[in-house]
Write a structure and sequence with these properties.
3 helices, Histidine-containing Protein, Chain: A, alpha+beta, about 80 residues, four-stranded antiparallel β-sheet
């Protein structure tokens, strides 16, 4: 299992566009990916679940990855967060 934390910098938080991009990036990975914020954990491959977290700027999120490509997927998603959120 691999995990990382990230503090959302985007002034809009995880809104529709970046949520869609995040889900698309997560779906390209074989690993199970969970995103946790505000005391709730959801499947990062489900758009409405990710948007339902209502993540705002300054919120810390934790991504947990478990599966065959967890190392590669964690690196890719960490880069995604840095570039988009």
């Amino acid at each position: 299992m691999k995990s990382f934390r990230y503090i959302i910098r985007d002034e809009m938080g995880i809104h529709a566009r970046p949520a869609g991009l995040l889900v698309k990036a997560a779906q390209s990975c074989a690993s199970e990916i969970t995103i946790t914020a505000n005391g709730k954990s959801v499947n990062a491959k489900k758009l409405f679940a990710v948007m339902g977290l209502a993540v705002k700027q300054g919120t810390e999120v934790t991504l947990t990855l478990e599966g065959t490509d967890e190392e590669k997927a964690a690196a890719e998603l960490e880069t995604f967060f840095e570039q988009n959120l």
